[in-house]
Amino acid sequence: MFRIPQQWLVAVLIVVAVVCSSVAQEQPPLGSFAFYHPVENWLRLPAGQPLGTISWVDVDAQGSVYVLRRCGACGQHPQQGDPPSVVWKFDRKGNFLGEWGKVPIAKEGHSLRVDRNGFIWITDTGAHQVKKFRPDGTLVMTLGKYGVPGDGPDVFNMPTDTFVTQNGDFFVTDGYGNHRVMKFNKDGELVKTFGSKGSGPGEFRIPHSIVQDSHGRLIVVDRCGLHETGCTDNRIEVFDTDGNFLDQWSHMGGVSLYITGGDTLYVGVIGKIFIADALTGKVRGVIEKAGINHGIAVDNQGDVYAADIFDGMHRFTRDAAR
After folding, report:
1. pLDDT tens digit string along 149-205?
2. Burial class (CB in 10 A: 0-12, 13-18, 19+), 150
3. Would you say 162 and 171 are in contact if contact means Cβ atoms under 8 Å apart?
4. N or C: which end of the chain has fewer CB within 10 A?
5. Enclosing H/E stretch for 267
6. Dist. CA 85–CA 88, nearest whole Å
């Protein structure tokens, strides 16, 4: 019987180990991300009414889905005489639960966030305001002066997003006109402002979406300017709560952000949604063919929702392990 010399066997095992190690490094680690597939026709709209142009989406702790309906049939932006934005509420199965709120929601709704206590925060780029509502639709707080843009401490210029911290303080990206982030205490008193117009570290073209990780760091999407032709380098900037610049990530771009427990960061871009580590920016996975993703959210079952201004509401659910 032919015997393989021991030194040959050792050499072969070393080569195999090296090859396997190389392959393992090229592949995502097992369980690093889930695969998703779209859920078709899951929304049951009220009879005779189209979904229209929607701007943002979020979910509450019970799984209810809040859709910020910018307008019924106005294209991307409302025109003079169009009705104000409203919120439509659905259950997790897509059943329509009603039009939310008993007061005008927004002239041109931009973002909608549900905080940990169930309050709903809406930014209004048309009226230059930020509003806080109770879960029953009662208006609690209004910041900014209706229809009055400005760069002072008590006004906004087309604010884009909000994020509420654990102690009730909140941040507003005052994005399209002022290129800044504003920090308020829980009573709505301005604490500080940071950022200025530009594309350098700590500067903004359009701070469009904001979240906070478990270490307290602020993660902000900085979009290309409204009239910046040929721009493709949307980025994410990271700050401490005092507004000091810490880092920036350019490998994902970005339009909208959502963060879940365990510091899982969802980054909506045009055409896809990245799933990343909020502490490092490392991409764990990606959801393809996801539309515009102007606003995104994730429910407590892990389903991902994306508000597409041009193509309605997308929903993606995780596949079983492959």
Report:
1. 999 999 999 999 999 999 999 999 998 999 999 999 999 999 999 999 999 999 999
2. middle
3. yes
4. N
5. strand 264-269
6. 10
DSSP, collapsed to helix, strand or coil, labels residue 44 as: strand
Whole-angstrom Cα distance, residue 64 to residue 91? Answer: 5
Which letter does DSSP use for residue 205 in this model?
S
In a domain, 61, yes or no: yes
In this prediction the pTM is 0.87
Distance CA 256, CA 208 (A): 7
Assign residue 58 the CATH number of its domain.
2.120.10.30
Helices and strands in the chain, H and E counts: 1, 24
Rounded Cα–Cα distance for residues 59 and 136 (Å): 15
Domains identified in the chain, total number: 1
pLDDT tens digits, 95-152: 999 998 667 899 999 999 999 999 999 999 999 999 999 988 899 999 999 999 999 9
List the domain range (segments joined by +) for residue 133: 35-318
